[in-house]
Amino acid sequence: MSSEQVSKSKVHLSVENIGGIDNLSTSFEPGVTVLAGRNATNRTSLLRSIMAAHGSDDVALKGDADEGSVELTIGDETYTRTFERQGDTVISGGNPVLDDPDLADLFAFLLETNDARQAVARGDDLRDLIMRPVDVESINEQIESLQQEKRDIADELSTLSNLSDRLPQLERRRTKLEDQIEEKEDELAEKEQEVEEYDASVSERQEVESELESKLGDLRSKRRDINDVDRRIETEKQSLDALESEEDELEDDAEDLPEVAGGKIDEIESEISRLRTRRQQIQSTVNELQSVIQFNEEMLSGTSSDVVDALRDADDSGGSVTDQLLGDDQVVCWTCGSEVDKSEIEGTLERLRTLREEKLEDNRAHREQLSELEDEKSTYERRQRERDRIERRLSEIESERETRQERIEDLKSDRSDLEDEIDSLEQTVDELESEEHGDLLDLHREANQLEYDLGRLRSDLEDVEDEIADIERKLDERDELEAAREDIEDELAELRTRIKRLESEAVEEFNTHMDDVLDVLEYDNLDRIWIERTEKRVREGRKKVKKSVFDLHVIRTNEDGVSYEDSVAHLSESEREVTGLVFALAGYLIHDVYETVPFMVLDSLEAIDSNRISRLVDYFADYADFLAVALLEEDAQAVDSSYPRYSPA
């Protein structure tokens, strides 16, 4: 559904067993809806129901219910979320408005417990919150991939450097072989000349000579065959050596690779699942504690509807107010009916507030632990993939080595057969040898040996020339590899610069929008709230790395009209709440949340006076399709009366 369609659509909401709500069905017109009333009247539960329909898990089931649901209808589209209690866990299901509610949880759903508001109040580094909606992770993945590609190219260039060093040695070997071949060719030519001269002087025993020539020809052929077999055996041995060298390198790589314990990834996934479940449980507890605290605060202050009704009944019947309130220091406990000191209830409330803060701190710690575990899981998976690759290649090498060893054995068997045939031929030649032709046979043997030696030299020369050509071909690739490495370095620099640029742009936009929000609020003693991006060296594992840090600064004006910089820690509690709200509202604007999230919800605005709340609501009414704001009755009176009012039962 388009933003324009949403802005013109009436919204219907049905809620069952969420927070303090049993059953509720209501509608919202486009624009602002003011939820006016006292605290503990389920306004926050209604806001959380809207958030739940969008996909947020910041929701709690009613304490006495095992199931609950939220249904939100916008135009022709209906979105349903279901919640089921399973032990200490609440399992959610259904089809929410948003596939990923993180952005909305941060900057559109601005309850008191909102992460952005709380992070400012605590003085946390704000980089994670500001950059979370920006896809920095994909940029980091690109950087990691390019770094690995760069390392691979460096390895190839190192190999080429070694080959380049070997090239002069091969060229000297080639020259030497060419000289040796030339000498052998000269010797063979001389020997063949002697054979021809001898043949010219002998005319007898032509038949014997013919047979001798045939056998000697066979002998030469077999020696060439055995030479070819020797070359093939040598080639297979060289391939085996290369395989063994690669195997050694892979085994070294595997040894250097940290061991991934069996089931470690499953353990981490299990721990991640446990922590996520625990976070949901803690959030549910926080929500329930908040409801209990608000209810008891109202009961204690006398603003609860139950107390007001009781007092009204007492007045109508002529009864004394002390029947309900037993003086300034004592009250009737609304849970057990006994008389107790106010200080005891106030002490209990303070302990509940402390417990709530502890739970919130636990939730933050769990979130940080989850992030660390997800990083650890990613590292282990990367190591496991590399180990699997090495093991696959080692298995392939083992198979290839066995194949080549079998070939060598077959070739050795062929060579043995050839040696037997050569021995048989030499024996036949010896038998045909005569006193008359002994010199001729010696000449033939010498010529055969020269041919054999010449064949070996030519084979060696061919191998050397092939290796030289292969090295030269690979060296031709060096320029391309170096150019590719330079391109990668440029791309890495651009990606790193892009992250810095995105951070700087985000900070600049946040500062601009925080100025806009402060202009709307018009605080006299709060001139400016701004973020500064700095780089600090922090320890990450065993090494220190540079990381960006976003620090929040506050510019104030004293009674004499002098401006000075102050830290969030020095602000009053209400000023910290205002600062956190300003930061969260700026996030809503900078990330254009209104373009993808139909609803914006505002709660816990007590730190801002009524007139400023009115200006704030008017300002954001121009952005949000639907703006639901929970206000006390006195604050609601200052807001434009044309905005629809809704008072939850």
List key phrases describing it:
649 residues; alpha/beta; five-stranded antiparallel sheet; 15 helices; 15 strands; ATP hydrolysis activity; Chromosome segregation protein SMC; P-loop_NTPase; Rad50/SbcC_AAA
Q: Give me the Rg, rounded.
A: 44 Å
Ends apart, CA distance between termini: 32 Å
SS class? alpha/beta
Mean pLDDT: 80
Strand order of the largest sheet: 2-1-4-5-6
Number of helical segments with 4 or more residues: 15
Our estimate of the beta-strand percent is 15-25%
Largest sheet: 5 strands, antiparallel
Order of helices and strands: HEEEHEEEHEHHHHHHEEHHHEEEHEHEHE
Percent helix: 55-70%
Number of strands: 15
**What spatial form do the alpha-carbon principal axes imply?**
elongated
Flag low-confidence runs.
1-5, 304-308, 310-328
Notes on the protein architecture:
The two termini are 32 Å apart. Helix 7 packs antiparallel against helix 10. A hairpin with a 2-residue loop joins strand 5 and strand 6. The protein has a domain of 156 residues. It is α/β, with parallel strands linked by helices. The chain is 63% helix and 16% strand. The protein contains 15 helices and 15 strands. The N terminus is likely disordered. The protein is elongated and about 140 Å long. The strands form four sheets. Strands 2-1-4-5-6 form a five-stranded antiparallel beta sheet, with helices on one face. A five-stranded parallel beta sheet has the order 7-13-14-3-15, sandwiched between helices. Strands 10-11-12 form a three-stranded antiparallel beta sheet.
